[in-house]
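Worked Example 4.2. Consider the chain below.
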Amino acid sequence: MEKQITINNQQFTLKNDDIFALAKFEEMTGKNVFKMQEYNLTDTISILYCILTECNQDFNETFDEFKQMVRQDKTIINQYFEFLGENIIENKKKALKK
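Applying the procedure from the previous section yields the following structure tokens:
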């Protein structure tokens, strides 16, 4: 699944299946996303950052700059949560079709 989100009046792509974003998250945090039982807010912000940097060549902010952006604009996280919710619904629909 793919979705566009807006950050500072600029459109960026989120993808739920980008393996390089997951690898970057693992490198950044030392956590394997497939083995995690729970996510905290730091993990959520970290994985969103990894998705943005791996799926968008024009997203060049550092992690600290990104955290500051999230601090100033709560809609960034809200858009990500909407994306996650849409993924859950899409996956349930696919499972029901099987």
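The mean pLDDT is 90. The CA atoms of residues 40 and 63 lie 17 Å apart. Compare this with Example 4.1 before moving on.
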